[in-house]
## 1
Amino acid sequence: MQYYDSNTVLYLNGKFIKAAEAKTDLYGQSLHYGYAVFEGIRAYNTHNGTRIFKAREHYERLKRSAELMHIPFPYDIEELIKQTYKLLKKNNLKDAYVRPLIYCAPNMSLVPATEASILICAWEWGAYLGSSLQKVCISSYQRPNPKSTHVEAKASGHYVNSILATTEAKIKGFDEAILLDMNNNIAEASGANVFIEKKGKLYTPPLGNILPGITRATVIQLCKTLDIECIEKHLSTDDLRNADSAFLCGTAAEIAGISTVDEVTLPTAWTESLGATLQRTYKALVLEKQNYEVII
Ligand code: PMP
């Protein structure tokens, strides 16, 4: 995967510079300790032009992540959104993934950051999990315990856990890992939230031990408009294994159906599932094909 070429421009601390010429310091807490926060945002080529989906929500979560991690966030959210649109334009990107990262100034001690930098880069990106249904396994790795970190923050260091889980899943021949929380309830996938369908209703783990996904919140909203009952409650591994259907959702993954859990096939065909209806509705929403503004 090539993320940039000699023409690519990125946004660094208020300036647009060539990605190939950008530099960073190697003596920082972000590189050494994973002490940084980031976002994953998508822009879509809609009939209204390039539109960043839920830009404000993503930058607000970035701010919240920084606050929880004691990383300075001296930025104005509206200004960041404006600069992100400029970045897309400068790189001639229409369908893109946008990655803002706040990383800390050189310092090797284990103290809160007093100075940080903001990088925003973007690249063209198709379906993150591919378009086929996902074969998932229950991971032997748990998500970080909320008493060991702020799990609701999108902090760089948390993703070592995600890399371990996807590595294990792929070695075993699966596409994705479903991680449990410290009570052995279903938490989330390595980079997406989980929903299950049972007897015509949807269920998803409550906030607390998961990243509060912006797609998850969108799906819950869409369920209200589509009159689908969606219940937030703790789910066991048996709830997932005995589900009629299930799906993952996230900015990168969008809505991705699950075909098997630990090699057991979920009985409802994806095309007949509530997830498939939500997948279609979500696509229409991000592409602004229907006017959902009143309800979302
Ligand atoms: N959980 C984790 C661990 C993630 O990395 C992501 C992706 N940001 C999600 C859930 C989904 O969040 P969102 O819908 O905001 O992309």
## 2
Amino acid sequence: MISGMDMLYRRVGSSGLKVSALSFGAWVTFGKQVGDPVAKQLLHAAYDAGVNFFDNAETYADGQAEIVMGHILRESGWPRDTYLVSSKVFFGAEHEGPNQVGLSRKHVVEACHAALQRLQVDYLDLYYCHRPDPEVPIEETARAMHDLITQGKALYWGTSEWSAAEIRTAHEVCARHHLHHPIVEQPQYNLFHRTRVEQEYAPLYQAPGLGTTIWSPLATGLLTGKYNDGVPSDSRLNAAGMEWLRDRLTGDPAFARRIAAVKELAAIAAELGTSLPRLGVAWCLKNPHVSSVILGASRPAQLQENLGALALVDQLTPAVMKRIDAISRPVAD
Ligand code: NDP
């Protein structure tokens, strides 16, 4: 079990904000796959291990994930300056009317107010645009984010799955109009999904100094080996409403080759005396452009296991990384 003493903290890009290298997110689990008592155990275990960032979004369980997290945060009595909490705007919560989704000024502001209520906090530490919105000028969204920051309702803003060109445009608009600029991007990053973080964003790390809080570090469970012999009945791929995820993962043309790669990676994990989940998470941590790896877990034991990845990072020597690369790169996108 790791304690807060063992946690590492990294700067979020060139901002002054410090985030735990391992953080914890609520997608699929809070308000959906797990009951409230388990959600509480998970959040407390994360906090006790030094995790200072809890990730959420308006769309997770249609707002329920934020409600569950809000209750736990309120009851915890944790000082507000010891943790960061995020929300993300774009997909909408319960309703999907024309102004209840997207990145218009109207929805960005109203979604922020709704998230603050659900999470029972006075401000969001990080407020992300969950996807780009081709129907809204970036300047409109950037101004809305700037105003929320000026009003103290959000401290920093960021993007999720924006292209490098869109992030650059946001920075240009913000520089031109003296607006608070985005400090962080939230992309998918794992052994099977690498191009965007490693290549597309590469020019942005130095200047403007992009930070990243990366999602699905275990490729939504694939890298744990749990799907090697089919989809277990108690996994997220069998949760109600998650058929689309099961189809996307198992229907990928590379699925069978990825399962084969996972089996080869398991041999490396065994040699190192560790587990596949730890190997997958530690591999993400090796990338210095990753500010934080957002963990997901539906059971406290999974979380404890994955938190142990911190101790593995030094064992991933250049020689080991080369072997991991040779196995995973041919099946990565
Ligand atoms: P992972 O890829 O790590 O998948 C987590 C899931 O894998 C768990 O819920 C569990 O699934 C399984 N798992 C994890 N550890 C273990 C283990 N040790 N042993 C066995 N199974 C394990 O991360 P997520 O996909 O959950 O993403 C993490 C966070 O990133 C989310 O909570 C969310 O905050 C954020 N996110 C952001 C997105 C965005 O668009 N910005 C998109 C997706 C996620 P099971 O319950 O089936 O056992």
